[in-house]
Amino acid sequence: MRRESSLLSIRNSLDCLLSWKPSAKVVSTFVKPPEALPDILPGFLWRPCASLALTSVLFGLPISVSAAPNLVDSAVQSFRKGQLDDAAFQLERAEQDDPSLLKDEKARRLRLFLSLASGRFDRFDRLAHAGTDDPMLAYLMALRRLNLRDFEGAAKLYPVVLQGQSDADLRRLLSDPARMRSSVPMPFACSDSTEAGWDALLSDVSRIIQLYDESPGPVELAAVSFLWKSRQSGWSGVFAGVPEKDMPSLPPESAPFLSLVFKPDKKKLLRCSAELSRSRPGFRRNSYRILFDLMMRIDDSPSTYRQIAHRYLNEPVADEGSAILAIEALHALRAGLDRLPPLEQAGSSHLSNDDRRAIEERLLMYRLLLQTYERLNRSADAIQLAQVAAVLERYIASPQAFPRKELRDRTGEDLYQREGLVLRLQLADAVEAAQIKRKIAQYDARRSEEHMAVFRRIYSYR
What we know:
Layout: H1 2-18, H2 24-27, H3 52-59, H4 68-80, H5 84-97, H6 105-117, H7 121-128, H8 135-147, H9 151-162, H10 167-173, H11 198-202, H12 205-211, H13 218-229, H14 255-262, H15 266-275, H16 281-298, H17 302-313, H18 322-338, H19 353-375, H20 379-397, H21 404-411, H22 418-426, H23 430-446, H24 452-459
């Protein structure tokens, strides 16, 4: 009985196929005309039937629009199996048959994951430009933004990842030791034992495929909360105010990272940067950049920028990245100088303790700037800055009047030395100040190798 039923079903499908009469529009897309198909009796009319999608695939005919969503589901299944080419083909076929799928969220999500898994980062960036409401996609997009030093772009994605999770929610999730492990790379690291960054994500295609069906776990959420809320004043960590005895136990390999994320402070940030291995310079620098962005948010004092510059200048210089490290230090030091108060034009014996400390901080930055310019092979900049520093050192070493004329003489020797111009601006009247500002703008326009548009946005200085 079952066999007869199956035969009848097949016969009905064939009858349905043979009795369908296509429109002229559809005929033009046939791979074979009806008369070329085997075993079809002449004189039959074709009529639509329920098995059209099946017969279209069997005979190479166009797929109906109603079948396109099914192809998306099939493409998702192929992706889950690691069959990337097959998934991409099915998705493209579905979108050709139903162009509205170009705006469908499921299809777009698959396109984003396919772009990641196949290494098409340019395509991923274009698709990610529209944003997302999906927590996992938002996390992956944030990793990409951080990799590109787009800290503001990453910050816009953090609330999507968190989905309204409060510090109390995160504390509850993190109370289970078994959930202290993460399957997704962290945004940054404190040691080599913590997998981190965009490059780590891309190193394992099978993990990208696995993430399609996952959501960020408690550790990922805590890391994102740390990145997001550290930018806000008054926040001091997911476990702020919680006694140490009530803190969850931390896995030894990730203790420095988690301790920073749970209860951040500047000392932990500095310790974290010091513990990164020198054996992986690229990995170290990428983590530095995120850590230092946080340091600037937590403590915007001049000393923070000096410490950042010192870290960059003490990185190994044997590889091709030494110049960009010096550029990082250059901009960090300029940002630090910008946050110092103007020179108090009084005799050195009348300086307050704060005034004296500010001049001493300025001199520390000038010394680091000398190293920076020497590394960039800009000896003229280094020489002029050394002369300015010598004037200020003599000024605070013994009682004397403010050396206004001498500082103007030294800063006037090269009116295209940026630090000299900025200092001279403090000593100028209104007319000269306008001229100096124009010269600073000219300097910034001419020095394309300093990548002003990128670094001025990161370090925020005048």
